Amino acid sequence: MQLFLVVLAILAGASIPVQAGMNVQAAKALPSPLHASLLSFVMGTLTVIVMCLGARTPVPRVEHLASMPWWAWGGGVIGAGFVASTVLLAPRLGVLLFLAAAILGQMVASAIIDHYGWVGLEARALTPGRWIGVGLMLAGVACIKWL
Questions:
Q1: Which of 2, 50, 97, 115 is the most exposed place for a label (fewest CB within 10 A)?
Q2: What is d(CA 96, CA 106) in angstroms, rounded to the nearest whole number?
Q3: CB distance 111 to 126 below 8 Å
Q4: 87 class by beta-carbon count within 10 Å (0-12 exposed, 13-18 middle, 19+ buried)
Q5: Same domain, 126 and 57
């Protein structure tokens, strides 16, 4: 089962450069790259609404929303920042370098979050294998940029 989930994660990751290309093309057609980011979030919001309706999920009650930690509201803000950075940086760096650098940032942050159990997640030790994985990603970014 876990292998299947890893394959799904790989497929989700493989969709990101496609999304970057779509958003860059939207940015070329619209007056501003920020409009492309807005378009991406409007379409994403509509998609999630349809998914919720299709899955017949109940509408969250006010007490559900009130019980969330204050920082849990920031996920969409971070997502918007990432989409905007994709639209602005991918054309300048190329999708491969941009996403490799972004993934390196994700790996470093993930290692720290896992190690300390931040944002409500279970703590997982930062083992030598995890350090090596992050180091290899750093080497990969360097190879993409300079070789």
A1: 2
A2: 15
A3: yes
A4: buried
A5: no
